[in-house]
Amino acid sequence: MDRFHLISVFVAVVDANGFAGAARKLGISPPAVTRAISALEQQLAVRLLTRTTRTVRVTQAGERYVQDCRRILTDMADADESAAGLHGQTGGHINITAPVMFGAKFVMPVVVEFLQRYPLADASCYFLDRVVNLMDEGMDVGVRIGELPDSSMRAIRVGQVRRVICAAPAYLAEHGAPRAPADLQAHCIVSATGATASTEWRLISKGVARSVKIHPRMTTTTNDSAVQAVLSGFGVSRLLSYQVDEHLKDGRLIAVLPACEPEPVPVHVIHREGRYVSQKVRAFLDLAVERLRGNPVFSASMMS
Prior knowledge:
five-stranded mixed β-sheet
C-alpha cells in the first residue's frame, strides 16, 4: 500500500480514538482501516496500537511516530497549497475552545479579527465551562486557566488571573465584611459549578495556605449567573478576576479578604500540532497571544 495512505489512516485512527471513527472520517470501510494499520506495522516491524475489543491505545512507539506523521501530512498540505497557488494565503477551518465567559469576552474578538484578516478561513467556537480534550474532540486551539497537567499539548502562557472573593456593597453593609477566612462560614455563599467551583476554598492565613470549608446557599451552573447573583446583593462568591474586573473598577463589587488570596493561576493558549503547526493555526495563535498578552486585565493580574 501507498505509505502516505497508511500514515493518513494511522493519524485518523489516533485522532478518532478508534477504527470505526477513522473509517467514517476517511470514507472507507473499517476492514480497510484494519488492513492499513496492519500493513504499516508490518513495514515498520513495530506495534503502533494496542487493540482490545473495546479500546484502541497508542503505544509509546506510536506516540512518537504519530507526531512525525502529522508533520509529514502538514508539509504535504502546504506543498499542495503551494502548487495550487494558495501558499501564503491562510485559509481552512479552525476549531477553538475556551471557558464560556473568557471566550465571549476575550476570544470572540480575536476570532472576528482573524476571520476579517483572512477571508479564506472559517471557524467554529466551542465555549464550555469544562475541560475539553483537544485531541478527542477535534479542537485546534484552546484556552486553559490553571496549572497544566503533563500532556502532549503545546502551551503558550499569555498571563494570569486571581481568585477574588467579592460581594456587593449593599450585602456588606447589611452583613459586614469577613475579616478572616473562618468568617466565611457565617456568610451566604454563591458557588458556580464551573471550573472554579469547590466545596473548599484554598486561602492564605497568616502566611500559611489553608483549606476553608464552604457551604453554598446557592449553586449555579455558569460563572456569569454567579456574577449576577452577587451583583444583586445576594451573597459572597469567589470568582476569577477577569470575570469581575469591570465590576470591581466601577464599585458594584468589593473584594474581601484580599490578603488571603492564593497565588494567581496562569492562563495558557494550547494547541496540539507541536513544532510543525499548520499555517492557519499559527496565524491564529500569533494573533491570540498578541491580543491576550496586551490586555491589561491579564497584565494587571500578573503584577498583583
